[in-house]
Predict the structure.
Amino acid sequence: MVLALVSLGICAVGLFGEDSRHTFLQSYLFGFTTWAGIAFGCLGFTLLHHTIRGAWGLSVLRIFEAGGSWLIFAIFGLLALPLLFGGGLHDLYHWSHPEEVAKDHVLQLKTWWLNEGFFIARTLIYFVVFGFVAAYLRKLSLTEDETRDQKLGAKRTTISAPMLILFVVFTTFAATDWTMSLDPHWFSSMYGIIYMVGNGLAAMSLAVILLLRNREKAPYREVVLPGLTKDLGNLIFVFTLLWSYTSLSQFLIIYMGNIAEFTPFYVDRGKPVWNEISLFLLFGHFMAPFIILLSPKVKAVPSLLMGVAIWQFVVHFVEQYWNTIPFMRKEFAFSVWDIAALVLFGSIWFAVFSRQVQIGALIPKHDPRLKEAYEHA
């Protein structure tokens, strides 16, 4: 609470200060996209769980439901307003200035997508649709606990399968709108996928942290056994590989193409400090976790797996910073508002999460796969 109040005070100074407003909005966008992305990741795993109906998901389903709840999407939809109105859009996005569009042929060709009205509408649509889906799936899940109506499980699968496709599309659009359009001349077909996979890795890491942190308490102590930790460890391992694959693919495509419009993304991130962060991500976000998670012991011992999950969760913020801020600051220039915005959005996210996770049982009560989960674990 103290951190939240301090960060709120710092952010207020940045928002209303004439000299600091531009830098603050950059930090605000970073914090917003990072924590909204984690909510996206939680919803993505909720949809994935209901689609494939894997027993492993029962232990963390309620964590994902709370982390990607309708209330979080509603609040983040409101928190997006400073970026959409009051000059925030014009301050951050080059394409929002008609006089710049008038003298730039590339921007003129993209006005059908990059225009203020459509941009604002898309942002609000993301949160409205995701919030509605999250609320509906949550209601069905809690109702099944009360009624033991197994048909509700099939209904969730029927809804989640097509929604998973829409989720991928909307998450890609969100990454394109909020971050990639900061440089409207640059684009990457992999950028949205990298954002989505990174969010998924952070969401799964957070779920594992919370699950294993409370492994000695009911009801988790009955399910946190080597079989379950192995499954969750493998999922972190897979998403670590997927993040490295998509990131490397983007680099190779741009490197081999060697087109002047695309290379600035890596040229900017090759400058002092940004280059060191790039190397840190290579070794810290991929190589070290990859090697560590190859060991079966790490996935069998909860304390070791939790350590890897904590590391990946923290490094996700560095990766998101590296992906977002250089679009706006070509030279590395750290700001106190970067941390303040991150803490503020994180405090809001966890405050809502802690309220939502208390609604209903931490593990679904009457899901027919619950017995399978216990036996598998």
